[in-house]
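Go through the following before class.
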Amino acid sequence: MTKTSFAAYPFLLGFDQLERLVERTAKATTDGYPPFNIEQAGEHRYRITLAVAGFREADLAITVENRQLTVRGQQAEDAQDRVYLHRGIAARQFQRSFVLAEGVDVAGAALENGLLHIDLKREVAEPVIRRIDIRKD
């Protein structure tokens, strides 16, 4: 199968970053841990909710770099004197990434009842019409 690039379409100028973004998103982890929801919380508002039972605020890190939202979790080591008869609650580290569209920013985050809520908002830009003068050579 031949890969089609945005460069193959002459009317899509300057979309090489979008092509890299699509490739980066395709490489994102497909691991299902931790499970998450994405919901629309308003016309220009979204919420990502991750199930992070057992994680404290200090165990979690949320970063945004190059429009990629990354949530990392790593719990401190358990006390060595614990003996589990059954261990069904995951305590492994994780990294979950989301690619944010242009104009989408993180509005805040909260941890409650084992759920990490990350609120996003989209800044809607006013359309700008610019007249380009034609110079005479």
Q: What stands out?
A: The helical segments are 16-26. The radius of gyration is 21 Å.
